[in-house]
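Why does residue order matter? Because the sequence determines the fold. Keep that principle in mind as you read this record.
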Amino acid sequence: MEPLATVFGRRLRLLRKANNLTQEQLGKKANIDYKHIGAIERGVKTPSFEAIERIAKAILYQMYRRSEEILVVLCRSGIIMQNMVFKNSRA
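Structure:
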C-alpha cells in the first residue's frame, strides 16, 4: 500500500495539470512556495490542513474560471441559446 502523502501528491499533480496550472501558478494562487508544491506532489512533504485548504480553494477557483469561460464561448456561439429555445418550444 502506498503512503497517503504519495497518493495525495499524485492526485494533486493530476488536478493541477487538468486545470492547466504550473506549480508556480498554483503556488502563487495558494500562497505556497512552488518548491513546496513540487515536494507535496512527489510525496516528499506532507501538507498541513491549512495548506490543503488553500490549494483546494486555488484549484476550485481555477475550475470555476474555466467553466465560466466555456459558458461564455457557448453563449457567443449560440449553442446554449439554441438549446434553451428548443427546450422551451417542446413544453
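The longest helix spans residues 49-77.
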